[in-house]
Amino acid sequence: MEEQSRTSNNNYKKLRNVVIFRFFLLIIIFGLMFFLPAGTIQYWQAWIFCGILFIPMIFVLIYLLKNNPELLERRMKMKEKEKPQKLIIKLSMLVFITAFIIPGLDYRLNWSDAPLTVIIIADVIIFLGYLLFFFVLKENSYASRIIEVENDQIVISTGPYAIIRHPMYLAVLLIYVFSPLALGSYWAMLAIFPLPILIVFRIINEEKVLIKKLPGYKVYTQRVKYRLIPFIW
């Protein structure tokens, strides 16, 4: 029993260290993508965006470390097992990098003139998207970053899952589709445009896997009609 407790404690510390490392690494990466192209640290839209993104993230990570480390461990997985998903992830990364580098260049070269109202509305939508993301994590402990089905996994049909089948992807869209506007760039909207298309393909492939491997998921798809947006798709 003592050995199991020691092993569990060591695993927890390892997970905590990985989470802390990736959190600060993400801050550095975002900072480089925003402020280097902008050529200044006075890019205020980027500071506000980072605050909206990273401050709530701190509380979510602390909550998960305390209440659901197993879910957080699932969220740390990065390597996709399904071949179609590997391609989608690579293309998504290209979209993200491009869409987050352009705003800094836009700020430096004054390509866009996004009014303060548009920026504030985009920031509010991003925050609401992050709230939805957190509610999804609270509802679904199997919400891994990669497409996989575990042996003891069950179909989640409560909370936001009672309305749409993939509420996490809706949260992702709210956060990232409005990111260029929050960063004050109209031109970056062109770069982020492929993201919804990639998410649609990801959902289609993911559902094939879930119908095949997760008992009860096919019945769930018949009960909850819409995948991503109520009354649309």
Structure explained in plain terms:
- This protein is an all-alpha fold and 233 residues long.
- The chain has one domain: Four Helix Bundle (Hemerythrin (Met), subunit A) (Up-down Bundle), CATH 1.20.120.
- Helix content is 71%, strand content 0%.
- The protein has 10 helices and no strands.
- α2 crosses α3.
- It is globular.
- The chain starts with a helix and ends in a 10-residue tail after the last helix.
- The model has no long low-confidence stretch (mean pLDDT 89).
What is this structure's SSE topology?
Elements: H1 2-38, H2 44-67, H3 69-75, H4 83-109, H5 116-139, H6 167-177, H7 179-182, H8 188-192, H9 194-213, H10 217-223
Helix pairs in contact: 1-2, 1-4, 2-3, 2-5, 4-9, 5-6, 6-9
Helix content: over 70%
Give a count of the beta strands, DSSP E runs of length 2 or more.
0
Mean pLDDT: 89
The string of secondary-structure elements, in order, is: HHHHHHHHHH
What is the count of helical runs? 10
Can you tell me the residue ranges where pLDDT is under 50 for at least 5 consecutive residues?
Answer: none
* Form type: globular
Major sheet summary line: none
**Corresponding CATH architecture:** Up-down Bundle
Q: Kindly provide the radius of gyration, computed on alpha-carbon positions and rounded to a whole number of angstroms.
A: 19 Å
Structural class: mainly alpha
Write down the CATH class: Mainly Alpha
- Tally of individual domains: 1
